[in-house]
Automatic annotation (TrEMBL), chain A:
Belongs to the binding-protein-dependent transport system permease family. CysTW subfamily. This is ABC transporter permease. InterPro entries: MetI-like, MetI-like_sf. The chain crosses the membrane at residues 12-41, 61-91, 103-122, 153-174, 195-220, 251-273. Residues 68-272 form the ABC transmembrane type-1 domain. GO terms for cellular component: plasma membrane. The lineage of its organism: Bacteria, Pseudomonadati, Pseudomonadota, Alphaproteobacteria, Hyphomicrobiales. GO terms for biological process: transmembrane transport. It is found in: Cell membrane. Pfam families: BPD_transp_1 (PF00528). It is a multi-pass membrane protein. Keywords: Cell membrane, Membrane, Transmembrane, Transmembrane helix, Transport.
From TrEMBL, chain B:
Pfam families: SBP_bac_8. The keyword Signal applies. Transmembrane segments: none annotated. GO terms for biological process: polyamine transport. It comes from Mesorhizobium denitrificans. GO terms for molecular function: polyamine binding. This is Spermidine/putrescine ABC transporter substrate-binding protein.
Length: 288, 386
């Protein structure tokens, strides 16, 4: 039997997106549906879930307000700290560095990903702990400095862990930059600083917004770094979720918080894309 | 001409490596690997020689693998090696931070564990929820109820049926670095005071509602197990006042105490004994005003995938000769008089492991209601997020 061109096209499309679609449906859409059902249920007397239809859990979101506030302040601060460190480095890699060494240097940015995040965070626990940097400080006469389990240690862990995710998209957007625009700007008498702010920065904004969105979204679900470098005292939504499912076993409230978190993430994405469109004057920044 | 010897092998070298890599990737089972490579046959043949793979601890097919859920720093690693040598069953060890977490995993569905180590106050809940079965004691001949101390083992029985057998008992006190902290401490009241003053930024509490809320309650003169809202409110007020001064909220306190990042922590007997053994300046203190006394038990989940191996390991651990090694390694006191007789004098005379009876009198066993009370769970969440 001969396939019509249209049928052929449909089959190709299905073959291309089928595996991803099935994967997402089974491991993303179905579990999310289960979470939605849980979120309108009740906590069973011994913990867990029992069927019900109530919005009590959503009314009780305030019980974890502190976790939302912590996350919604530390996630943007972390993302901005990453950005401030990543931008100059990405600029150096994309514009200033000798092209023959560029590949090597960019690869070095990715190298930390070869080791598990858990192992790298544990290394920081030892570096910041009493036998690490504070011990070195003691040798030069500065006693009893505590670095580990402070908000500063959490911020450091965040910047360390997520920096590559910020550098790479900015690097890509700067590397694509048409050099003739910079030459034209210089030709027309602009100083380097004004060329940077009028040409380079706006054209790299898609990369910046991608980086900011990537880091912020991952930080909204962060659990490990506050636990390990914050000593369990810095409480993110991720930590609240772990406790609700594994300690107090209030699965319905945990589900309601998870649903709310998803809504917040989508809102963050939409807002950051709007901002990027406005500043860059382009619609090339599609994250969703 | 004779055939090359390779033709007689069950598998070529390339074929062997190919199958081996498939095994490593997990695409084939161990059983398949042993079958196609001929190693299974070899193992079976060698297994008939004495000393190679005896099955002294149980009859029947134990399989080759089982999992246990237990606590950190709680077993002699050699125990599982020896069990594997004796039975051929490899034991995968899962470590947990709280009874709540173990219960949550069990409530969520099949865990894959064939043995686990719940604490006394949780056993009645596990049996009510139908998550554990009554034990078949005929499969645990090494257990002898006559040599057990009923004070510690009674909660293994629910309605006269035995659901769990004791591993060891212990206490929840606190551990102090006496080289760093000079204030003498004798009670939980002292603990929370020093945590806010001399030990500012250096004290740890457990990430565990039972002991953290319980000890705060005790320091205020209330019961360790209280669920009265007005008493819990007072405990919450204290914990939230102390929180800015804490080093961490974490049940895994040994690394921080050893590195001297932390100078004061809530502590279980076995950790206290291990820390004091390695660093004599780390003292272990029981609250004069109260605190917890506990027993950890072995139980078999209803959903256990390998019950024969679970029973075999349980029976192996109930053998005093094996149990004594566990006690020497983990530093917790035993409930079994046969094991006490085998322990070296430096352990039985260690006041951390076997304290005076008088210091045990104010202590309370955890109550089942604290495991499921939503008030305590929410208090803990507010404390952590404050």
């Amino acid at each position: 039997m001969e396939l019509t061109p249209k049928a052929k096209k449909t089959m190709v499309t299905a073959a291309l997106i089928g595996p991803a679609a099935i994967w997402l449906f089974v491991f993303m859409v179905l579990p999310f549906f289960a979470i939605l059902v849980f979120s309108v249920g009740e906590r069973a007397p011994a913990g867990g879930y029992q069927p019900a239809f109530t919005f009590d859990q959503f009314a009780n979101l305030g019980a974890r307000a502190a976790a939302f506030v912590n996350t919604l302040t530390l996630a943007p601060i972390g993302a901005i700290a990453c950005l401030l460190i990543a931008y100059p480095l990405a600029y150096y890699l994309a514009v200033k560095v000798d092209p023959r060494r560029r590949l090597l240097l960019v690869s070095l940015v990715v190298v930390p990903f070869w080791t598990s995040m858990l192992v790298r965070t544990y290394s920081w626990m030892y570096l910041l702990g009493a036998r690490g940097i504070p011990h070195v400080l003691e040798l030069i006469g500065i006693e009893n400095v505590r670095l580990i389990n402070t908000p500063g240690a959490v911020l450091l862990g965040i910047v360390y862990g997520y920096l590559p995710l910020m550098i790479l998209p900015i690097f890509v957007s700067l590397e694509k930059l048409d050099r003739r625009l910079l030459e034209a700007s210089a030709d027309l008498g602009a100083k380097p600083i004004s060329t940077f702010f009028n040409i380079t920065l706006p054209l790299s904004l898609p990369g910046v917004m991608t980086g900011v969105a990537l880091v912020t979204i991952l930080l909204l679900g962060e659990y490990l770094i506050p636990q390990l470098l914050g000593g369990g005292k810095v409480f993110f939504i991720g930590n609240a979720l772990v406790d609700l499912f594994l300690q107090s076993r209030n699965w319905p409230l945990g589900s309601a918080i998870a649903v709310t978190l998803v809504i917040v993430v989508v809102a963050v994405l939409l807002i950051s894309m709007r901002i990027a469109w406005r500043f860059a004057g382009t619609r090339q920044i599609d994250l969703v | 001409m004779t055939k090359p010897y390779r033709d007689n092998l069950p598998i070529s070298a390339d074929g062997f490596m190919d199958q081996f890599m498939r095994l490593k990737r997990g695409s084939v089972s161990r059983r398949h690997f042993l079958g196609v490579t001929g190693l299974g046959l070899a193992t079976a043949v060698f297994g008939r020689f004495p000393g190679a793979g005896q099955r002294a601890y149980a009859a029947g097919d134990l399989g080759t693998q089982m999992s246990i859920a237990t606590w950190p720093n709680y077993h002699d690693p050699a125990t599982f090696e020896n069990f594997k040598a004796a039975t051929g069953v490899a034991v995968e060890v899962n470590v947990f931070g709280s009874n709540e977490e173990m219960l949550a995993k069990m409530q969520a569905g099949a865990t894959g564990w064939s043995l686990f180590v719940p604490t006394n106050y949780t056993i009645s809940t596990y049996s009510q929820l139908g998550l554990i079965d009554e034990l078949d004691l005929s499969q645990v001949p090494n257990f002898d109820p006559a040599t057990q101390s009923a004070r510690f083992t009674s909660e293994g029985k629910v309605d006269g049926k035995t659901y769990a057998l004791p591993k060891n008992w212990g206490t929840t006190g606190f551990c102090v670095n006496t080289a760093k902290l000079k204030t003498p401490m004798q009670s939980w009241k002292d603990f929370f005071e020093v945590a806010q003053t001399e030990a500012d930024g250096r004290a740890m509490v457990h990430d565990y509602q039972l002991t953290t809320i319980g000890s705060a309650l005790v320091s205020l003169g209330f019961s360790f197990n209280s669920i009265k809202p007005e008493e819990l409110a007072k405990a919450e007020e204290l914990l939230i006042k102390v929180k800015p001064h804490l080093f961490a909220i974490n049940s895994d306190y040994q690394p921080s105490m050893r590195s001297t990042d932390a100078w004061l922590t809530m502590c279980w007997t076995n950790d206290g004994a291990q820390l004091n053994r390695d660093m004599p300046e780390l003292a272990y203190i029981l609250g004069k005003d109260g605190g917890e006394i506990w027993t950890d038990f072995y139980a078999i989940p209803k959903s256990a995938p390998n019950k024969p191996a679970g029973y075999a390991l349980l029976n192996y651990l109930m053998d005093p000769q094996n149990a004594v090694k566990e006690h020497i390694a983990n530093g917790a006191p035993t409930t079994d008089s046969r094991v006490i007789a085998l322990l070296p004098a430096e352990i039985t005379s260690n006041k951390i492991v076997y304290p005076d009876e008088a210091s045990l009198t104010p202590l309370e066993f955890g109550a089942a209601v604290t495991l499921t009370d939503p008030g305590r769970a929410e208090l803990m969440a507010r404390f952590k997020s404050a």
